[in-house]
Design a protein that fits this description.
Blueprint: E1 2-6, H1 15-27, E2 32-35, H2 47-53, H3 55-66, E3 70-74, E4 95-96, E5 99-102, E6 108-111, H4 121-136, H5 153-170, E7 176-179, E8 186-188, E9 196-199, E10 208-213, E11 216-221
Parallel strand pairs: 1-2, 2-3, 3-4, 6-7, 7-9
Antiparallel strand pairs: 1-10, 5-6, 8-9, 10-11
Helix pairs in contact: 1-3
Length: 238
């Protein structure tokens, strides 16, 4: 049983990103594909625009499913409104808030997107709500929807670490947590009562994904190595 987990592709972010993702999907062979949130970016374009402009990617997902690959979708930040107008019908690719799995060895996994652990996410949603109310009455407030990915430098690093530590505390009844959202590919080994954690990374800069093959979980890249500027995240692996 081979499972591939993708997260934070942010289709709509750039044509280069989509081109790499399409090449990856074209050659992908697995029993199961889990799309762990922010695959389609509904902050940038409407469902109709995405269906028209990225029909190639949608068709590749459908071809995978036709070949027998089980595909499931976990909602993230940028696709939180996906259920209002699913880009791919739910009968083809079902949507979940999270997915639980058990490895052949009996160890338990929970797969989440992870935005609910981001302290900046709720204020961002409130800002979006007031922007919407303003648009109804013809006003423009211009509040910005923000997440940890809007931070830079050490603030971003500290924010990412805090989210991952929160995930390990919240889901410490599992052996492994697999998540996205922070765009930072990493693996953190099991420590005492804390769950081991894997972050899938993203396809805006890393082209990374997680593979579950039998009892083994690994982070891989479409390239041979992660980009140089992200190597500090590998401190968990050293």
């Amino acid at each position: 049983m081979r499972t591939i987990i993708l997260s934070d592709c942010h289709i709509c972010a750039s044509d280069a990103c989509v081109g790499k993702l399409n090449r990856f999907l074209h050659s992908l062979e697995c029993n199961e594909l889990i799309l762990a949130g922010d695959i389609f970016d509904l902050w940038r374009k409407s469902p109709d625009q995405i269906r028209k402009e990225y029909k190639g990617t949608i068709e590749l997902l459908r071809r995978l499913k036709a070949r027998g690959t089980k595909i499931e979708y976990i909602l993230g930040t940028h696709d939180a409104l996906y259920l209002k107008d699913p880009i791919i019908p739910l009968a083809e690719i079902p949507v979940h808030p999270y997915i639980k799995k058990t490895l052949p060895c009996g160890k338990k996994i929970i797969i989440i997107h992870g935005h609910e652990l981001d302290p900046m996410y709720l204020p961002g949603r409130i800002a979006a709500f007031f922007n919407f109310i303003g648009s109804v009455f013809g006003c423009r407030f211009g509040f910005k929807r923000t997440t940890v990915n809007d931070l830079i430098g050490q603030k971003y690093i500290d924010g990412v670490r805090a989210i991952h530590e929160k995930a390990q505390r919240k889901y410490n009844s599992y052996d492994y947590v697999i998540m996205g959202h922070t765009h930072a590919p990493l693996s953190s080994p099991k420590k005492e009562k804390l769950a081991g954690l894997y972050n899938v990374g993203d396809w805006k800069g890393h082209n990374s994904y997680v593979v579950i093959d039998g009892d083994k979980i690994t982070i891989r890249y479409m390239m041979s190595d992660p980009p140089h500027e992200w190597r500090w995240f590998r401190l968990y692996e050293d």
